[in-house]
Amino acid sequence: MAKGSIVAGCLAPHPPHLVYAENPEQNEPVSEGGWEQLRWGYERLRESLKNIDYDVIVVLSPHWQTYVGTHFIGVEKCTSKSVDPVFPNLFRFNYDLNIDVELARAIHDQAESQGMAVKMMENPDFRVDYGTIVSCHMVRPEWDKPIVSISSNRSLSYYSVEVMQEMMLELGRSTAKAIEESGKKCLLLASNSLSHRHFVTETNPPEDMSKEHIASHAMHLWDMRMIEMMRQGKSQQLIDEMPEFCEQAIAEADGGALTWLLSALDVPEQPAILHGYGTIIGTGNAIMEWPCHSWEE
Amino acid sequence: MSGEVIKSLIVPAHPHPVLCPEKNEGWQRIRDAYDEARRQIEESDADLIIIYSTLWPSVIGHQIQADPNPKWVMVDADFHDLGSIHYSLRIDSDFSHAWNKANLARGLESRTVAYEGFPVDVGSVVALELLNPNNRIPAVICSTNVYSNRAETTVLAKACQDVIKAQGKKVVAVSVMSLSNRMFTEPIEPHEDRIHSLKDDEWNQKILEFLSEGRLEDIGQLSRTIHDQIRVKKVVAFKPMWWLSAMNGNRNDLTGKVLAYEPIHGAGAAVVVLDPESNGTGDKEYDEDDVDFYGGDRNVLDSGEDDSSPSTNSGPKLYDPVEGKNTVNTNKAPKPVGAYPHARREGDLLYLSGVGPRQPGDNSIPGGPIKDSNGNPLDYDIKAQTKAVVNNIARILEEAGSSLDKVIDVTSFLVDMDRDFSGYNEVWAETLGKVGPTRTTLAIRALPTPIAVEMKVIAKV
Ligand SMILES: [Fe+2]
User: CA–CA separation, B168 vs B170, rounded Å?
Assistant: First the structure.
């Protein structure tokens, strides 16, 4: 069996506003668009991935929050409706997706062998979180690839960003190893925003772009700093600065997704491609791609 | 018929007492205590359960469940292997809508939600499953705003009280929460369960000692310390005690009883009942700002363009409201721009002086002024201004012992009818329009301060 590989890693933010603005048939609310800068960014990402062959999407979302270890969905077919408890007016999405339980279990087992607390989620009534669904939909709206869904362990809440990162670095290494052994080609998604200070009011309609802007200048500076590091391949520096970033920009990277991704990509020194940046009710969001396939060619 | 909170409960959120109490003696004791609390509710004349849910975070203000019958299958994010809980709840959506309206009238951002498949949080599902099986009485569920401070949480409770009084409800107020919320970060066997650390246990005991003495407000005031000491920093801080204390009038002389205290996967789970009867020890002073209206971080959507824009515009000189026989004045309303009172009472009628959107204290204009100090026009938000007018009216009426729902007649003045009528009308429909006073709207050339809307109100006392 040929070795499996990661074909690309992406930072794929998941505010439900993006799916809402796209008006896919699966989502109940109807919009007049909005957040085009980011949606065009996703369009560029999809274009960039168009000719790349892969088998599975592996995604880590901060909206499946687990405190007792890291969990993996272990149910092959997930069909239900995902309603965002924070923005139910925007996101009520009927999903029907397939999970690659075999690969999920392989990553689970590998992480367990490295001493991590892990658990398979095998309850068929479980609802897939909206972060996972939004990121996957924006990257691959055809829904024709199976998914590995990984929870966000809230070790940050218990310990510190440093401990969280230690765990996510291990989870990233375990993910890469399990993928290599699986023989599968995988696309990895870190599902999170960058700076994460929301407005506490909503415009009417929510897609009124005349009111959309970054929550504060400090948040903007942090976002630009992180994007520049990614564009220059300074992954290690980014990991090193993560504690300050999480604290000062209330960054959603605190859920561990970005650190996990960078680790799975072996802390890349290759530059990431910026496909788009934009704000969503004040939070900063960047769509980035590390195109591993081209490194190998 | 007078509405009031007749009982308050603090109950734990984890699904173990519903799904597998038999696996651990402590979980069973929590279940038994839940059952005892249920019996107490059944024996009372309670006709509504109100839940402040710490497991339902919100960003856009507070959200209140208004689907009359939310139903779905709940699976816990961590403890999914314990099984699923099928829920079908009875919600008092009239109350939910009224609470939402009362929140808006007190300056809070707020909305109701009613969507098929909405994921009711595990804490609310567990609490209602055990306290209110078969939906014997209806319930209301409110979210916890992730950014809210004590002032906002207190105003939320006061708005809730407004509706309880107006509707004459006998209410059980429920905070669903852990005490110490530190769980074991690895799976454990049921028999291995214990409070995560000695320190957590000691703090929990201290909290329960206070609560058993009825000192709820003291716990409210200690909540920031408690949060630092024994709470994992999740998005929602130790806010429920703020809400629960405000729901009880910020008192320290309630009658409290701890029905159970046990670990659930390391976290401190307790069932506590607080009755409003005074325990006879005498109350203690409430020493934090007693906020009635919320005036905090609300215009953030507009502030990004230019923070230096003059929100406190130099305008005409301000006066202290004129005092005299039958006058009604309050420092919770903006200062007059001439020698007149905020309102005057004649018989059982109240005549208010023209009310604009300026804020008491800093004189700022929500939604921004219509021009700068040089007279250059500025973009402003008519809806924010209109909302602020209605809030100011509510404060003056409140001072006079009246309220928005007693408004009889309104004359509104707009400086730009073409631009602003629809926005003004929209806010009207959400606020005074629901009360139904007569209304006349006039276009005028200018108002004395750089505002776009003013209202002249007559109300009953
Ligand atoms: Fe998010």
Answer: 7
Task: Provide the sign of the torsion angle of the four alpha carbons B38, B44, B45, B48, taken in this order.
Answer: negative
Strand order of the β-sheet with A56-66 is: A118-121, A70-73, A147-153, A56-66, A185-190, A5-11, A283-290, A273-280
Binned at pLDDT 50, 70 and 90, residue B378 comes out as: confident
Under the banding of pLDDT at 50, 70 and 90, the label for residue B307 is very low
Interface test with A, best of B120, B301, B381 (most A CBs within 10 A): B301
How far is A79 from chain B, CA to nearest CA, in Å? 13
| pLDDT score of A1 | 75
CB contact A296 to B (< 8 Å) = no
Return the SS3 of A20: helix
Residues contacting residue B46 through CB under 8 Å, at least 6 positions apart: B6, B7, B137, B170, B171, B172
Q: What is the mean pLDDT of residues B446-459?
A: 92
Q: Report the separation in Å between the CA atom of B224 and the middle of ligand 1, taken as the mean of its atom positions.
A: 26
Q: Which of B65, B6, B10 is nearest to B34 (CA)?
A: B10
Residue pair A8/A283 in contact (Cβ under 8 Å)? The answer is no
CA–CA gap between residue B35 and residue B310 (Å, rounded):
58
Per-domain residue ranges of chain A: 5-294
Restricting to A residues 203-242, those with a Cβ less than 8 Å away from any Cβ of B are 203, 211, 213-215
**B4-275 has which fold?**
Protocatechuate 4,5-dioxygenase; Chain B (3.40.830)
Structure tokens at B298: 């609300």
Q: How many CA atoms lie within 13 A of B173 on its CB side?
A: 24
* Test the A interface: residue of B55, B59, B76, B120 with most A CBs within 10 Å: B59
Comparing CA positions, the residue from A206, A214, A216, A233 lying closest to residue A277 is A214
Domain residue ranges in chain B: 4-275, 310-460
The pTM of this model reads: 0.78
Element holding B201 (H helix, E strand): helix B198-212
Q: What is the mean pLDDT of each run of 10 residues along chain A (297 residues)?
A: 93 98 98 97 97 96 94 98 95 98 98 97 97 98 98 82 91 98 97 92 93 94 97 97 91 91 97 98 97 68
CB contacts of B234 in chain A (<8 Å) are 154, 157
Task: Say yes or no: domain B310-460 is CATH 2.40.50.140.
Answer: no
- Do A265 and A291 meet the contact criterion of CB atoms below 8 Å apart? no
Which helix (H) or strand (E) element contains residue A62? strand A56-66
B338 touches chain A (CB under 8 A): no
Residue type, A139: V
Q: Tell me whether B316 touches chain A (CB under 8 Å).
A: no
**Can you tell me whether residue A186 is helix, strand or coil?**
strand
> How is B301-338 classified by DSSP, letter by letter?
HHHTS-TTS-SS---SPP-PPPP-TTEE--TTSPPPSS
Residue A199 and residue B300: Cβ atoms within 8 Å? yes
Q: Is B234 on the interface with A (CB under 8 A)?
A: yes
Would you say B267 and B122 are in contact if contact means Cβ atoms under 8 Å apart? no
**Fold held by A5-294:** Protocatechuate 4,5-dioxygenase; Chain B (3.40.830)
Tell the burial category of A2 from Cβ atoms under 10 Å away from its Cβ (0-12, 13-18, 19+). exposed
Pairing, β B62-65 against β B110-113: parallel
Cβ distance of A68 and B78 shorter than 8 Å: yes
ipTM higher than the 0.90 cut: yes
